[in-house]
Design a protein that fits this description.
about 775 residues; alpha+beta; 5-stranded antiparallel sheet; flat
Length: about 775
């Protein structure tokens, strides 16, 4: 039993190789036998499908029990043949029937005890292996049959496609051919063969040379071999003998077909009959010659000379310009009826005239050459000469043609215009001198105005403000990056505008950007622009603020609020002077001066990881600290006067000043909102004022911001104490809330991050202000 089982396994392992050999055999049979497809692939009837299964299994059992052969030891091989034949010729259901019948026959006739349907238990693995093998053979045979059927159908479709393509090529009006990589032309379409009246066998290879004109064969063969060696496309003309014996000009084009590695697989070519074009070109040449003849009647003097210098033609206008008809003697000397002078008045001999040089050397003078002609009556005219060489159809020189026009009146007009232009030029120079003088005077006046009004909106005369303005005056003419720091409302943007106004960029744009007022997701697009489709809603390309400020100054207010990724892009602008739009890949060069401002402690932000240190050092090239209003109390009267005048004029009121009590009140207040807060207070007071003296209501202020200065308390401690009191008062009013519209940050007019940093540095417990 073990021997039979191992035999079964061995037969199963080589079955795949056997089926492939069977496939080769049937394929060879189909190719070599006429109508073999009908024998192999004919779809059987139902009776035939199941009948062949029964007959093949019965035959296998009979052969195995035929005494002369004594094949009872090989029932598996015989039944495999039965299953293969059934599945191949009858289909999968016939194969499955043969498998079932083979299993029953094997069980009944070959598994001991034979002729009984009660096999021993130890024989069941053998039966199982037998059934599995039969199923495998059945399915594999049917699969192979299906694959071969698909291949046959694909082959038929390809053949049909080739036939259709060949039909299209043969019926197209173009002459098409193809060649091997070695130049052997193996295919001409039917149009080609009909055109030359030869068969494909006569034209194939190099037989096509017989229909080319003998004078063209060497040339076109040489060009064809050169293209084969270089792999370059071929374009050549030759005369081709048509079927009726007429030679006609043809334009041949051949291009190579290459594989992915550049190797030439095939050459494809087409030929076009250009006989009509050649004849048209010849007709054009004749027309051009006629046109040259027609040009002789133009309203200019025209005459021609042959190579000997004899005048062969002249028109009526030439006689008018010469002054009389030339004599026979003069006809032989380039028209000697008049004398030629250069524009300087020097006489030019006839043998050295422009016409004589053109006839003798073939070199024509420059177009529109001007000479003076002296006529027989002594009068002189200025003529403009244009000479051309005449050639025959072979290109040989046969003479020259001279066209000349009287431009005496034109030259006189030009002389008059030139004199008028000189007068206009002198007048223009005088006007330009006056304009330059006026511009210098305007420039001087403008500089004077700038000196007196540069800081017209920066009001004050305190020492600390004077020190700031001195820094502005020094840094403004340079290209240095400036970092302006100071509390909210101290006028940092005014300082930035003053720097721009005194710089060399003052005539270009000043673009201001409040970095804290723009959402973090949009700040990069706002600064650097974006391309169409860069993000949702980007329906078109948009220029950023840096592009709008090109050549001018960009002011980045609240620069400490920039996100980290935008800080990186800004650092690139400062270092490389270039950036890329959001969603774009093109690098844009920029020429912009950067002025930044912040009310944050950037050193603390760097320590907390919220600001890049390298960006800080790039911005902090020239730092300017704007003092708060509480450090410039001596400037408060000037500021009050300035804002009273400004808002009174705006409101149409007449206010002469402010009473002393209100002024003392303003000077004793600590002004946490700085100049912006003072501006708002004065505007409010002007609105409610009904007299000529402005009055400020003390209830408008918080009493905790009024303080007496201590002579012993240091200024830094006083400022810290004032700042702490202001923050605590704001927290008390907002119930301990920092963010939001009603939060302490909004009340103080500073960003939330700045307030959080100050609460932490001043050791303020914001939770104590929250309601229970």
């Amino acid at each position: 039993m073990n021997t039979n089982f191992n035999s079964t396994v061995s037969i199963s392992s080589v079955l795949g190789s056997w089926v492939l050999k069977w496939n080769n055999l049937t394929d060879h049979f189909r190719r070599s036998t006429p109508n073999a497809d009908h024998f192999i692939w004919r779809k059987p009837s139902v009776i035939w499908s199941y009948g062949i299964a029964i007959l093949s299994v019965a035959a296998a059992v009979l052969i195995a029990h035929w005494p002369p052969l004594y094949l009872q030891s090989a029932p598996l091989s015989l039944t495999i043949w039965a299953v293969v034949i059934s599945a191949w010729f009858g289909g999968v259901w016939s194969g499955l029937l043969a498998t079932t019948l083979s299993a029953l026959a094997f069980y009944y006739f070959f598994l001991p005890p034979v002729y009984l349907l009660a096999a021993k238990p130890e024989e069941m693995p053998r039966l199982f292996a037998f059934v599995v093998t039969q199923l495998f053979v059945c399915l594999l045979t049917f699969r192979q049959r299906s694959v071969l059927e698909s291949l046959r159908r694909a082959h038929e479709e390809i053949k049909k496609s080739e036939d259709r393509l060949r039909l299209v090529i043969d019926t197209t009006p173009a002459l098409i051919h193809s060649a091997r990589p070695d130049g052997y032309i193996e295919y001409f379409n039917q149009r080609w063969l009909d055109y030359v009246g030869l068969s494909l066998q006569d034209m194939a290879g190099w037989g096509w040379t017989r229909v080319n004109h003998p004078d063209d064969v060497d040339r076109i063969v040489t060009r064809w071999r050169s293209s084969l060696e270089s792999g370059e496309p071929l374009e050549e003309e030759s005369r081709l003998q048509r079927a009726d014996g007429e030679y006609r000009w043809m334009l041949h084009r051949k291009v190579p077909l290459r594989d992915q590695n550049g190797k030439i697989l095939y050459w494809y070519g087409s030929s076009i009959d250009i006989e009509d074009r050649k004849r048209a070109e010849e007709a054009v040449s004749i027309s051009e010659q006629k046109l040259q003849d027609l040009l002789k009647v133009v309203p200019a003097g025209v005459y021609t000379c042959d190579l000997s210098g004899r005048i062969t033609f002249y028109n009526k206008r030439a006689v008018e310009l010469w002054g009389r008809e030339p004599s026979n003697f003069e006809m032989d000397r380039y028209c000697g009826s008049f004398h030629i002078h250069n524009l300087d008045g020097s006489l030019l001999p006839h043998d050295l005239s422009p016409m004589a040089e053109a006839v003798r050397t073939g070199q024509v003078p420059p177009p529109n050459t001007e000479v003076i002609v002296e006529r027989p009556d002594g009068s002189r005219i200025i003529v403009m000469v244009n000479i051309a060489i005449m050639t025959d159809q072979t290109g040989e020189r046969i003479g020259a043609i001279n066209s000349f026009q009287d431009i005496t009146e034109l030259k006189n007009t030009e002389t008059s215009l030139e004199r008028a232009n000189q007068e206009i030029e002198r007048a223009f120079q005088e006007i330009k001198a006056l304009k330059d003088k006026l511009q210098h005077e305007n420039l001087a006046l403008r500089e004077e105005i700038d000196k007196t009004s540069m800081f017209e909106e920066i009001v004050g005369s305190s020492p600390v403000l004077h020190a700031v303005l001195t820094q502005v005056s020094k840094v403004a003419p340079t290209e240095t990056t400036v970092l302006i720091s100071g509390e909210t409302g101290t006028g940092k943007e005014l300082i930035a505008r003053a720097i721009h106004k005194r710089s060399q960029r003052s005539l270009r744009a000043f673009v201001s950007v409040n970095c804290s007022a723009i959402p973090r997701d949009l700040i990069a697009s706002e600064l650097f622009g974006h391309e169409k489709g860069a993000f949702t809603g980007a329906t078109q390309r948009r220029l950023g603020r840096f592009e709008l400020a090109e050549g001018g100054t960009i002011f980045l207010d609240e620069v400490g609020e920039l996100p980290t990724e935008t800080q990186t892009a800004l650092l690139r602008v400062l270092q490389e002077r270039e950036f890329q739009r959001v969603g774009g890949d093109r690098t844009i060069q920029t020429d912009v001066r950067v002025i930044a401002a912040t009310n944050r402690d950037l050193q603390a932000a760097i320590a907390a990881g919220g600001f890049r240190s390298d960006l800080f050092y790039r911005l902090n090239v020239f730092p300017i600290e704007v003092p708060p209003l509480r450090q410039r109390k001596e400037d408060i009267p000037l500021l009050v006067e300035y804002y009273i005048h400004r808002y009174a004029n705006k409101a149409g009121k007449k206010i002469l000043g402010i009473n002393k009590k209100s002024l003392d009140l303003l000077q004793s207040y600590s002004w946490p909102g700085n100049i912006r807060e003072l501006q708002n207070v004065i505007e409010r007071a002007v609105i409610v004022c009904d007299t000529e003296n402005l009055t400020v209501d003390e209830s408008w202020f918080s009493h905790q911001h009024f303080q007496a200065e201590s002579a012993t308390q240091p200024l830094s401690e006083k400022l810290a104490t004032q700042e702490k009191e202001m923050i605590e008062a704001a927290l008390a009013e907002s119930g301990g809330r920092v963010s939001g519209p009603s939060g302490a940050a909004a009340k103080l007019g500073i960003p939330q991050s700045t307030l959080d940093s100050k609460i932490k540095s001043l050791h303020i417990n914001k939770h104590q202000f929250r309601p229970n």
